[in-house]
Amino acid sequence: MASFKNKTRDEIPTASLLAQLKPSEVNENHHPGWETWQCAFAPDESYFAWSCGNRLVTLVPWNRCKSTLASTDDTDDEGRKLPHKTITINCGSLVKSIAFGSTISDKKHLSSRAFWTHFSVSKDLVLATGLNNGRIRTWDISTGHLILELMDHRSVVTHVAFAPNGSLVLASVSQDTTIKFWDLNDDGNMFKTLKMNGKAVYSCAWSPDTKTLATVGMCTSVYVWDTSTFILKLRLTGHKHDVVACEFSPDSCLIATASWDTQVFLWDAHTGKKLKCFGHLFPPPRLIYASGANGTWVRGLSFSPDGSHIATVADDGYMRFWDILSEDDPVAVGTVEEALCCTYSPSGRVLAVGLKVVFLHQV
């Protein structure tokens, strides 16, 4: 079995390592609870956040002008000093998911600023953390103070995602089999619950136009929901093992899904037609092998902000960058052992990969 379709590893360009982040307490003897289950960049690229072990989330100032950590270079393009205060938040329980929310749309400012009846924030950014105890906590980025605690899930909150339109509507999914929607502008009111198939839900993704939400979990299907009616719009079938990650393209036209069956599929978000398959093991495994322990489970994926590439991480120890127009070999690779997730920076210049420790790769 091979990791690449036509080329050898040495024939594919290598992504360069930009930085490596480690929890201050971590040592060579890894213990459960120190995994980086998720990492995220703030929409304005002012911070990079990562679940850095056990109950902690660290927010590291990011130099968006130079696409590096502010601790490495704290001046902008005009030589002005940037703030570089690192914030560490103790969330009180193992952190399984994190997401930034903003009162500013990805495309334009809202006409009114978000507010809470009993709580307030001092900046436009908030951070949501999905916890192992089934709770969601939201935090003021500038102070690190707790804003709201959202309680309705009955098991691990596996993923959280804010609507990208600045509304501060939060979607969450859980091992309790439910998908929930919360309105942080209404004191965190939980206003809708959906169920996918009665099994654990692993991940969710908003379309950039916020009209749809994709969810995946302990099954081989992808569920696409209309977020105005909360009716199931599409059910995409084709994977042979659990689907663990999903993401929309920046124009909301495509959905990428990653599965433990060693494959990433690219779908038409409007018709549900499967368009591309990016394989991570060759020849492709047969059904009995694809649906079991095959050594090449794909763990995470991320769409580049320009929509031209997809990054993936898998259990075979490789991070891959794919041109969405080609199903051949990836255009670049990197070596990352025990990767759990990956995410592009909003500028598309950097990819962060979460492992037992975090790596930042130059794209």
Number of helices: 1
- What's the helix-strand series? EEEEEEEEEEEEEEEEEEEEEEHEEEEEEE
Helix-strand makeup class? mainly beta
CA distance, first residue to last residue: 28 Å
| Parts with pLDDT < 50 across at least 5 consecutive residues | 26-30, 109-122
Helix content: under 10%
**Mean pLDDT across all amino acids:** 88
Judging from the principal axes of the Cα atoms, what is the shape?
globular
- Range of strand content: over 45%
Largest sheet: 5 strands, antiparallel
Summarize the structure.
By secondary structure, this protein is mainly beta. Helix content is 1%, strand content 46%. The chain contains 1 helix and 29 strands.
Topology of this structure?
Elements: E1 16-21, E2 39-41, E3 47-53, E4 56-63, E5 68-69, E6 87-90, E7 95-102, E8 125-131, E9 135-140, E10 146-151, E11 157-162, E12 169-174, E13 178-183, E14 189-195, E15 201-206, E16 212-217, E17 221-226, E18 231-237, E19 243-248, E20 254-259, E21 263-268, E22 274-279, H1 287-290, E23 298-303, E24 309-314, E25 318-323, E26 332-335, E27 341-344, E28 350-354, E29 358-362
Antiparallel strand pairs: 1-29, 2-3, 3-4, 4-5, 4-6, 7-8, 8-9, 9-10, 11-12, 12-13, 13-14, 15-16, 16-17, 17-18, 19-20, 20-21, 21-22, 23-24, 24-25, 25-26, 27-28, 28-29
